[in-house]
Specification:
Layout (H helix, E strand, L loop, with lengths): L1 H14 L17 H22 L3 H10 L1 H15 L2 H20 L3 H17 L2 H14 L9
Helix pairs in contact: 1-2, 1-5, 2-3, 2-4, 2-5, 2-6, 2-7, 4-5
Length: 150
């Protein structure tokens, strides 16, 4: 359990950006396509971080973050703007990490790692263009997100 708390804290700390002028945080009623894409991209990265920690594949996560650094930073900035503050983004990101870590902790480790193999293999192949395409496709097909009309 300590590992799960540690990975959630590391993911949240890695996502923190310099403080910008904070506006009152309020979740918008609809989600622009850019924010929906950012949500899915950051969810993938968080799932990858948890999987690499649980399955002793830390190098995959580190390589992915280095290879996709600019896209990740861009997605973080998009979410900060969408959520209207660093604090709201940190809260969202921490909640996401906790949700995914709890799901992982409810599974037998061997079973979780078997299920995570596809994610780990996919992460090895995602350069920035493929990462963006993946996130965009996930966002486009997500019916849970209320998307803003143009």
């Amino acid at each position: 359990m300590k590992k799960l708390v540690l990975i959630a804290a590391l993911v949240a700390a890695a996502a923190t950006q310099p403080a910008w002028a904070a506006k009152k945080a309020a979740t918008p009623k609809c989600t622009p396509a850019s924010a929906a894409e950012a949500q899915h991209a950051l969810r993938f990265m968080t799932e990858l971080g948890i999987a690499t920690n649980a399955c002793s594949s830390i190098g995959i996560y580190a390589d992915f973050r280095v290879r996709n650094r600019d896209a990740i930073v861009g997605y973080q900035k998009t979410m900060i703007q969408h959520l209207r503050s660093n604090a709201a983004f940190d809260k969202w990101n921490t909640s996401l990490a906790n949700e995914l870590a709890q799901r992982q902790s409810a599974m037998v480790p061997v079973q979780f790692c078997q299920q995570a193999m596809a994610l780990l293999e996919q992460a090895k192949t995602l350069d920035t263009a493929k990462y963006r395409a993946y996130a965009a496709a996930q966002a486009a097909s997500d019916t849970r997100i209320v998307k803003c009309s143009k």
